[in-house]
Amino acid sequence: MKPMKKIALLLMASAAAVLSAQTAQAQLPDDIDPMSFSRLPLLLKDTLDAEGQAIFETINGGEGNVPRIGPPNNSMYSIGPSEPFDVLNQRLRRTIVGREFFEISTLVPAREFNQQYEWTAHEMGAQRAGVDQEVIDVIKFNRPVTDLPEREATVIEFGRMMLRGDHQVSSEMFAKMVDLFGRQGTIEITMIMGDYTMTAMLLNVVDQHLPPDREPLLPME
C-alpha cells in the first residue's frame, strides 16, 4: 500500500472512531458523566486521604490517579467497604468451582438484573473460560435448560430459583447441588451469585453505561 493512501486510511479510521465516540456520548442521558459513563464522576486518587489512596491503589492495581470505570469507580465512593468488596470478588475468582462455573455464576444474576455492563464483561469472560455458547445463550435469552449438561443446567436453575419468585431453594435442588458440587462448591456458587447480584444492583443504581468502544451483548427486556 502506498504511504499516502495508508495515511489517508488511518486518518479516516481515526475520524470514524472520534465520531462514534462523540455520537455515543451525545446519546447518554443527561445525568451520565461522559468520562465514567455512570451517574458518578471519576473518583480521582488525589482527592482521597492517605488511607483512601492506599485502598485506591489496591483496587486499581497501580499508582495512577484515574480509577477503572465500572464497579471500582462506583464502589470507591464508599471507600472503606469498597476494599473488602474487592477482596471478596478476587477470592471468589479462585474457588474450587473453577473458571467456567465462576463465569456461569456471574451471568445468572447479570441476566436477572438486566445489567448490561456486567453481562457484557462476563459473557466475554465466559467465552475465554471455555463456556459453551449454548450455555451462555440459555441464560441470555431465558431459555429452558433442558438440553444442557446436568451440571450447567443445575447451576442455572439454582440461580434462577434464588433470584426469582420467593427466593427460596428447595430441598431437592440443594441436595442436587451438593451431589454435583459438594458442600463447599454449593456455598461458593451461592456467594459468587450473591456478589454479582450486589454488583448488578450497584451498577443499576448508578446507571453504568458501556464505553463507546464496547458492543453491548445483552438484549434488554
Automatic annotation (TrEMBL):
Keywords from the named record? Signal
Q: Which domain of life is it from?
A: Bacteria
Q: InterPro entries in the record, alphabetically?
A: AhpD-like
SUPFAM superfamilies, from UniProt?
AhpD-like (SSF69118)
Q: Does the keyword Signal apply?
A: yes
- Signal peptide residues are 1-26
Does this UniProt record's set of keywords contain Ribosomal protein?
no
Q: Specify the protein name.
A: Carboxymuconolactone decarboxylase-like domain-containing protein
